[in-house]
Design brief:
327 residues, mainly beta, 5-stranded antiparallel beta sheet, 4-stranded antiparallel beta sheet, 1 helix, repeat, Coatomer_complex_subunit, WD repeat, WD40/YVTN_repeat-like_dom_sf, WD40_rpt
Length: 327
Amino acid sequence: GRFRHHQCSSVEMESHRQFVRHSERVKSVDLHPSEPWLLVGLMNGEVNVWNYQTEALVKNFKVCESPVRAAVFVARKGWVITGSDDKHVRVYDYNSGECLRQFEAHNDFVRSIAVHPTKPIILTAGDDKLIKQWNWENEWALEQTYEGHGHYVMQVVLNPKDGDSFASASMDNTIKLWHIGSATAVGTLVGHEKGVNCVDFCHGSDKSYLVSGADDHLVKIWDYKTKKCVHTLEGHTMNVTSVRFHPSLPLVISAAECMGDLSGTVRVWNAESNRLESVLNDELERAWCTRVVGDTVAVGYDKGCVVHRITNKQVQKSSGASDKKAE
């Protein structure tokens, strides 16, 4: 692929493009934890599961007539769960393709779904400014509503180091920190000057970090214990739509609504030196969503989706805002 690399003290990364699929605009991507499967939620109301190794279409669901902004695997149940602009959450058996459950979850677009790693619960976030907690072992009962944001809640993400805490990103320019079961936020991170689209927790190191991206074109790294911004990563020239920490390498992957190659639609940053490591130019127009599992990175764009592998070269050597409604 066409990648620019910047060497850094801590990691010498290498990228390989594994899979490219042209499609309608992609609003959501997820990666299966054990199968080589990419889950894609589309603007046209469809969801596809691709095998990114064989390039075969594993499953296709027509969810609804409106955009599917959230689609996630629940591997331990054999499910795909979707959230869409028709305000509904739907649960599918990904082997049979059967819709097992559907319910109206919010009073507006459903933006984001987070699946608890051990408990039988999901969190959903919507344009009604709410986050809701649902329990599938209790007939999908609404267990808790989390209130406090003043605008659309764009993303909700659970802390991988602490299953009882999560964070949310909102168009009210803030990130809020929450505890499962406690209706009001335990903290608010203030520093972005425009709406915040995305947030993710650091998995690997002992640092209590999270990363956010916003319509001010900035990526910010925060210490969620002190609630202070520790670094601001500048370089994107458009709204930042998705941010992820790499689970094992000290990298942050950020995506933005950039059309041209030079601005770097997807950027890979070193989370320790805060330098730009690499720019991934897939030439599929604006990037909307990313997901990282292991060394596999999925990106969804206006014109399709791509799966990259991002690995550490050192290890290999030794071992072998815009109008949110319209988009």
